[in-house]
Write a structure and sequence with these properties.
By secondary structure, the protein is α/β, with parallel strands linked by helices. The chain has eleven helices and eight strands. It is globular.
C-alpha cells in the first residue's frame, strides 16, 4: 500500500530538504519504487531547485488554489522519481487542502514524501495531517534539540506516528550532543546519522541528489540503509572498509539497531 511520510523540523537550516531529496532518490533509484516528492514548504519552497526545477510553470500552489489538476504540477526527474514543486512567488493558499490532494495521488505512487515548512504554523500542521507518519530531521546541538522536542510534542498531540529522528550534519566533535543524549531528551529513536559532507552542497549545485551523484559516499549509503528500513527490506553496504569493520566489531550502533527494528516493523 502507498505510504505518505512527512519530513519535518521546526528550525531552518538543519538539512530537511536535502534529506527529503536524497531519501526519495534512494527509494526510487536503489529500490525501484515509484516515488513522489511534494514541496509543502509553501512560504519558502526550494525542493524543486535541488532537481533543477527553478521556474515551474505549474506548481502546488496552483493545485491548492484549484487552478489546475494536480497531475499538471508533477515533474518527472527520472522514470520513477517525480516532484511537485512550490511557487517561489509565495501565493496565498489554503494549506489544509494538501490532505485531499495527497489522497488522490496515493494510488499512483509507492511512497510520497512531503517536505514541510520549518515553522510551527498551519503549513507544518497541514503536512502532519496529510502524512501517515513523520520523520524528524535534527542536528546535534542544543538549539536544534529544543525545537526537535517541540516538533515531537506537537506531532504526538495529533496522534501521528513518528518513525524516528535523522541526525544530520554530524561532525563528531566533543561539543556536539551524543546520540544517547538526543534519544533520551526526545524519546524518539535515531534511525539515521548523516555526517557533514561536502558532496551534499556539491550535488545541490549539480541538481543531482547525492545518492546518485556520489553513490558510495557516507551520506548516500546511510540514506540507502534508511530507505531499506522504511521498506522493510535489507541493504548491505557494498564498500570494503565498512565490511571489514563489521568483521572486527560485531556490536551494531544505535541507529543500526533502530533501523533493524524499523525494518521488522516493531519500532513503533
Amino acid at each position: 500500500m502507498s505510504k505518505c511520510i512527512g519530513i519535518i523540523s521546526i528550525k531552518g537550516g538543519v538539512g530537511k530538504t536535502s534529506c527529503t531529496a536524497n531519501l526519495g532518490a534512494a527509494l526510487a533509484n536503489e529500490f525501484g519504487k515509484n516515488v513522489l516528492l511534494v514541496d509543502a514548504n509553501y512560504s519558502a519552497p526550494n525542493l524543486g531547485i535541488h532537481f533543477g526545477i527553478t521556474q515551474p510553470e505549474v506548481n502546488l500552489h496552483d493545485v491548492l488554489r484549484n487552478k489546475v489538476d494536480v497531475g499538471e504540477a508533477i515533474y518527472e526527474y527520472t522514470e520513477n522519481l517525480h516532484i511537485v514543486p512550490g511557487s517561489l512567488l509565495n501565493d496565498k493558499i489554503n494549506p489544509y487542502k494538501l490532505r485531499q490532494t495527497i489522497k488522490q495521488l496515493k494510488k499512483y505512487y509507492d511512497i510520497i514524501l512531503l517536505d514541510s515548512s520549518p515553522n510551527l504554523n498551519d503549513e507544518i500542521k497541514s503536512v502532519m495531517l496529510a502524512a501517515d507518519e513523520l520523520i524528524v530531521v535534527t542536528n546535534p546541538d542544543y538549539p536544534t534539540l529544543s525545537t526537535t522536542m517541540h516538533a515531537v510534542k506537537v506531532a504526538r498531540t495529533k496522534n501521528i506516528p513518528i518513525v524516528g529522528l535523522v541526525l544530520n550534519r554530524v561532525r563528531n566533535k566533543s561539543f556536539e550532543l551524543s546520540i544517547e543524549e538526543i534519544e533520551k531528551a526526545s524519546s524518539v529513536p535515531i534511525i539515521g546519522i548523516l555526517s557533514e559532507d561536502i558532496s551534499v552542497p556539491m550535488s545541490i549545485a549539480n541538481t543531482v541528489p547525492t545518492v546518485m551523484n556520489n553513490p558510495l559516499g557516507n551520506v548516500s549509503v546511510e540514506m540507502k540503509k534508511l530507505a531499506a528500513a522504511i521498506l522493510h527490506e535489507n541493504y548491505a553496504d557494498p564498500r570494503l572498509l565498512p565490511r571489514l569493520r563489521r568483521l572486527f566489531n560485531k556490536e551494531p550502533g544505535i541507529a543500526e539497531v533502530n533501523r533493524d527494528l524499523l525494518r521488522k516493523g516493531v519500532l513503533y
